[in-house]
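As agreed, record passed on underneath.
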Amino acid sequence: MAAEIRSIYLNRMSTPILKGFAREAAIKKYQFDVQVKNVSRLCHAKPIVTVNGRFPGPTIYAREGDSVLINVTNHAQYNMSIHWHGLKQFRNGWADGPAYITQCPIQTGSSYVYAFNITGQRGTLWWHAHILWLRATVYGAIVILPSKGTPFPFPQPSREEIIVLGEWWHADVEEVVKQGNNLGLPPNMSDAHTINGKPGPLFPCSEKHTFVMEVEGGKTYLLRIINAALNDELFFAVANHTLTVVEIDAVYTKPFTTQAILIAPGQTTNVLISANQKSDRYFMAVRPFIDVPIAIDNKTATAILQYNGIPNTVLPKLPTLPSPNNSAFALSYNKKLKSLNTPNFPANVPLKVDRNLFFTIGLGMNSCPMCVNGTRLTASLNNISFVMPEIGLLQAHYFNTKGVFRTDFPDKPPTVFNYTGAPLTANLGTLKGTRLSKIAFNSTVELVLQDTNLLTVESHPFHLHGYNFFVVGTGIGNFDPAKDPSKYNLVDPPERNTVGVPTGGWTAIRFTANNPGVWFFHCHLELHTGWGLKTAFVVEDGPGPNQTVLPPPKDIPQC
């Protein structure tokens, strides 16, 4: 279907495409012009890469069952690729977007049509650049409405609002990263967090750079919240108002109320909020969660929830956010997340496991004579720092191109040790390689992600492309294969595409490998991804006619 839709689209390239969208036979068409625009925040102006000159970029609206065509034309000086985060892209990795994983990037002056179907998914997802650190400014929301006639499994809200959380640097982000890499150190942290691209009035020169949401007393609203920050897990709250969580990563949850949410980079959370307080102005606020002594941008970004008729001169009330190191809140919040698991929205958790994987997450240091300390900080899974290839891995897999990658990524770490014991600061070198894990089609996989105290423990949000997975267990300390599986939730665990591995702890996920192709798996902290905290799964073709990778589109970019 996607290939047929693509050919229809390419035949119609002479007709104008809306910068928004046009509905035609359940085909949504968008034009994304990647272009540089001067933007001012915090008294500083700078050129940034945008889509259609907007920051954040345009929202993709579609309905479950629709086909989507997005023609991305690159007018910027950087190579570009865009990832549609959380869309499963069944058999269609060509539309997934990570540069050098499923495609070569779109070069300056070139275009590429991302053509995909939305099947069996509804809710809030998002899109972002998936090359260099360009997602600092190249990102936006994806809103998938339920198929016509299908209601939400919660009270219908009066209105919806998209809330995208981000980060802002005064300097050119790519230059900041380059400087850090040359020194072998982390780049400078961001200068502000943002809500819908705006830092809010607690920052200088930000009166007009404040997002305001007007509400009417007595009505209920749906907030579609996205964490597009590069490196920070974030707390979000609204002063004096309770939030009801109803969805995570475009999967409905059992509703529960909370004063604040915790959302990691890459994750989405839908909440209901009732305008049931005294008519006034209330701050929405966002601030990082960090429970290890690492330097981060800890400043608070704000937006305003404003009841109708209240003048702008009224000073908004600030919410009480959890303290930045409140790991007890983080653990208890994540424990409340459960799949809805109803006949209409079942949680099909794999109960039998065909393949057990155990990946350790570690920081490290490799020799770098040119770097400031003679070493370069690095990161690894099972002590392997991933090396990006020079052509797309999916092309290499599909055309059986030799010498691009190996499929010998180990199922377990090379050495067993006390993973979360005292910090280990010696022998921190890592192996390097483009090594992938091969998975048999339709096999069920359990993957345990184990944080380690190599240099320091830290929380890591991991994202799997091409799949959702069930988070069946999590804990602090070392995973115990003899005892911990007995505590798994195999009935209604949360289903998502990005999961946080707790600081000094572990997380167990399960999925059925029924989507053939090459699927990226990486930490969604951009810092760690750049340091090598990533790999990919090669899911083999199945025996059936609809169980193989689709042929590549004719306009796939070349390296």
The two ends are 27 Å apart (CA to CA). DSSP finds five helices and 33 strands in the chain.
